[in-house]
Amino acid sequence: MASPPAVLLVCLGNICRSPLAEAALRHAAEAEGLDAEIDSAGTGDWHIGAPPDPRAQAVARANGLDIAHLRGRQVARADFDRFDHIVALDHENLRVLKSLRPAGSRARLSLLLDHVPGRAGEAVADPYFGDDTGFETTWADVTAGAAGLVATLRDR
Question: Is 155 part of the annotated catalytic residue set?
């Protein structure tokens, strides 16, 4: 039997979009009975060890999920062999991931919204510098992306 798929969700600082995407994907996978290893990370190092942004925690909580226990971490070279899928939340982080990816690594790279019909190539907007409504928009996007990604993983 094949091992469960392993997915890493990546944004810039790992305190807004990627922890929300991690929570949404865990929830979607559980709802569909899909066993998967799911984690998140950032390409930057500013928030290593920090909890998610309070606004991200609030939108997750409003949707029945707790992300307060998550801590920011930076993408590591080993992630490219640990994970089957490394999923960026925007084009800049995808570009950075492509530049970091060691030759011959197993991870497949994509954008989260590539997994949503009709939204391939779109980025999840970074809500960090905006108000609370940006986090609600991000939650809608990562929820849609999570549902699409679960479908992709089921079809593998």
Answer: no
